[in-house]
Design a protein that fits this description.
Length: 115
């Protein structure tokens, strides 16, 4: 798995490429989100456009990231779900619980709509 980090103003975007299936990938994702939170980042987008496989451990890692962000007073959103990942989000009903946007730009823009 490969990570690319960008920021647009005060919104940090973490793009993931590859599989999100098990440790150490899931642990690295959570560690990166925690490092943002320790730096007082309040707005985070996780870009899943190039994630081609997600397993239950990956779903658990995403939920852990959301929970950790909320406890820190931050907001985490998801963007660019591939068809496979979107299907898994629908089956698990995560798409009704988590903020999901079609594109990174839409997710980034949504922060300015709320603040």
């Amino acid at each position: 798995m490969h990570f690319v980090e960008q920021h647009f103003g005060d919104v940090y975007v973490l793009s993931i490429k590859g599989k999100l299936t098990d440790s150490p990938e899931t642990d690295e994702l959570h560690t990166r989100v925690e490092s943002y939170l320790k730096s007082q980042v309040k707005k985070i987008v996780i870009d899943l456009k190039h994630v081609n496989l997600i397993a239950s451990a990956g779903i658990g890692a995403l939920m852990r990231c959301v929970t950790t962000a909320r406890k820190a007073g931050s907001e985490l959103k998801f963007a660019g779900l591939s068809d496979k990942v979107r299907s898994i989000f629908a089956i698990t009903r995560l798409d009704g619980i988590l903020p999901v946007y079609d594109t990174v730009n839409a997710a980034v823009q949504s922060f300015s709509d709320h603040y």
